[in-house]
Amino acid sequence: KTPRPHYQEGRQDATETSSARATSFVPGIPLYRLHSFPLLPLHLKTLSNSAVATSGFRRQSTVTSARFTLNSDVYKLHEGTTGASLGSGPPLEGEITREEMTGMYSLMAAIRELETKAGDLYLEKIIRGFLHRCNGQEASIVGLESALTPGDELITAYRCHGYTHTRGVSVKEIMAELAGKATGCSKGKGGSMHLYGPHYYGGNGIVGAQVPLGAGIAFTNKYNETGKICVTLYGDGAANQGQVFEAYNMAALWKLPCLFVCENNLYGMGTSSTRSSACPEYYTRGHYIPGIWVRRNNVG
């Protein structure tokens, strides 16, 4: 019988059979280019070295990297009104290693398992209060993290469990926080909407309030000449907040190292974006800041 995934300190079990094992996860320890441990069963990690019997001879699979080409419809560009431009956009071709691919996939799977278990505990009333899960948005979370350096700053809205994990917080600390335990990453006082981690300024419960805070973090980085950027996330439900546009203005005026990201999942609570926004093309609304639309659920 296949056991249900369970959670232990320092390890997210991603077993598929009773004999499968998971690698350890050490919070805050940078690893490879994801600076989060690939949570893989060992039989998956050794797949490239497995022998395959074919017509009487053995063939060794040694693929360690591959080149990829993205379709041209994965992004759209919008230039700022001040002439600021992103140029020709991001490259559509590149090379990715097998370790990176399996690492990103397994991290997405770990986030999904975390959120699934959190939903179970919520129904059992072990988790109380609000519970905002990110099911279906794992690709954007992992894709964003894979593009950052460990020292870059991140601040998000309240749908923050996945981002907290990719920033280096263990599953056990996140689950403990959701359950209101003192061993949680916010000492049990933050709950689902207020998780924090290394270079992660948390989920924020007030809609849109994290956007000017992100601009402030970026100002600190510029003032101290750290070379870091601050990635500031908000949802389509916060896109019409006045403070969002005020933060845009300050960021453009002072040329702050800040990347504003709108996670458009098409609904703010129960309201469709087409019913709440005269212009739901949020990437075109930076005015002084050039924008880019990226196709959802594509980790690339």
UniProtKB/TrEMBL annotation:
Residues 1-14 have a biased composition (Basic and acidic residues). Residues 1-21 are annotated as: Disordered. Signal peptide: none annotated. Its cofactor is thiamine diphosphate. It holds the Pfam family E1_dh. Residues 108-294 form the Dehydrogenase E1 component domain. GO terms for molecular function: pyruvate dehydrogenase (acetyl-transferring) activity. GO terms for biological process: pyruvate decarboxylation to acetyl-CoA. Keywords: Oxidoreductase, Pyruvate, Thiamine pyrophosphate, Transit peptide. This is Pyruvate dehydrogenase E1 component subunit alpha, somatic form, mitochondrial. It comes from Geodia barretti. The lineage of its organism: Eukaryota, Metazoa, Porifera, Demospongiae, Heteroscleromorpha.
